Amino acid sequence: MTWLITGGAGYIGAHVVRAMAQAGEHAVVYDDLSTGILERVPDGVPLVVGSTLDSERVARALLAHRITGVIHLAAKKQVGESVDLPLHYYRENVEGLRVLLEAVTAARVRSFVFSSSAAVYGMPDVDLVVEETPCVPMSPYGETKLAGEWLVRATGRATGLSTASLRYFNVAGAAAPELADAGIFNLIPMVFEKLTENAPPRIFGDDYPTPDGTCVRDYIHVVDLAEAHVAAARALQASPGRDLTFNIGRGEGVSVREMIDMINAITGYDRPPTVTPRRPGDPARVVASADRIAAELGWKAKHDVQDMITSAWAGWVRSHPKAARN
User: Fold this and answer.
1) Fewest C-beta atoms under 10 Å: which of 4, 125, 200, 282?
2) Residues 14 and 160 in one domain
3) Are 272 and 196 in contact (CB under 8 A)?
4) How far apart are CA 120 and CA 147, in angstroms?
5) Catalytic one of 89, 90, 121, 141
6) 36 with 157, same domain?
7) Considering the entire predicted model, what is its pTM?
8) 237, exposed or middle or buried, with CB in 10 Å at 0-12, 13-18, 19+?
């Protein structure tokens, strides 16, 4: 099969491209390069520069490269920004998906893997989030991901397209320094930035009903996440007509304070955090149950949080050489 990977020049997308190639699958990258980085696309992997909103370009790419499966990662993904720009997020994430699916069905593509998010759950009041946990998203971003799942599933039922929706939890780490996350939107790079500036990392609230009072999250190494895409893609290839939904996490919670302590130890800094008021909408605990994907596809995360921090730090030091501690 040949897989079109939308957003394949992005942080997660580049890892999926790499994992698919290592698994012997053929890949074509489709990316508008608005946030993607050209250098992340491996030599020998075709790149089509374009938006998923461009129906003609999408259709040409599917036909020109004889695409038989799509892994759709291209999307806007900043929760706070989505609150300020909901129309933009719905246009990019939902309308872009609709245009893509229309082209996919016209080209008789057989398999479709959708990049979803734990944001579809909102603030679940459970110890472990299972796929049946009610979805009550709290941001336009989360809403677009849930609407995307509905759209993908409905298209599959109507056309016979095999589909899988992967609900990512907190993604971190890197397969190589040059593939590290270049954004500063998630906890680990946010802490790196503060340490590099000789400023204390921030904890947003320490009065949550958790063991140390700070929020607890489930972190997944981007390499493990990429391998989950390979497993899902091959499952769809092997059994046409499937409709799959999986959580992608480790099933282990790490608090914000624990994470900052580990980052200080691994990077060589010793800068205690400062506590600031809670951010609106932050749930106390969101930890995945990944039992379903383990049982159905045999996938299980292999990397721990220390691997995530160490590999992410190598990427940070590569782009911020003065951050290294002697």
Assistant:
1) 125
2) yes
3) no
4) 9
5) 141
6) yes
7) 0.96
8) middle
Can you give the residue range of the structural domain that contains 108? Answer: 2-171+220-248
Quick: pLDDT tens for 207-260: 999 999 999 999 999 999 999 999 999 999 998 889 999 999 999 999 999 999
106 shares a domain with 21: yes
Q: Measured in whole angstroms, how far is the alpha carbon of residue 10 from the centre of its chain?
A: 10
Q: Specify which residues 203 forms β-bridges with.
A: 275
Its sign, for the CA torsion 131, 134, 138, 144, is positive
Q: How many domains does the chain have?
A: 2
The one-character DSSP state at 5 is E
CATH number at 293 reads 3.90.25.10
- Please list, in sequence order, all residues whose beta carbon lies within 8 angstroms of the beta carbon of residue 325, skipping any fewer than 6 positions away: 267, 268, 269
> What is the tens place of the pLDDT at every residue in 39-70?
999 999 999 999 999 999 999 999 999 999 99
Co-location of 176 and 243 in the same domain: no
**What are the beta bridge partners of residue 168?**
117, 248
First to last CA, the chain: 48
Q: Do residues 112 and 72 touch, judged by C-beta distance below 8 A?
A: yes
Does the CA dihedral 219-223-228-233 come out positive or negative?
positive
Cβ(5)–Cβ(71) under 8 Å? yes
- The answer to whether residues 279 and 315 belong to one domain is yes
Tell whether 89 and 18 lie within a shared domain.
yes
Q: Are 68 and 3 in contact (CB under 8 A)?
A: yes
In this structure, the answer to whether residues 181 and 317 fall within a common structural domain is yes
The CB density around residue 132, as the number of other CB atoms within 10 Å, is: 9
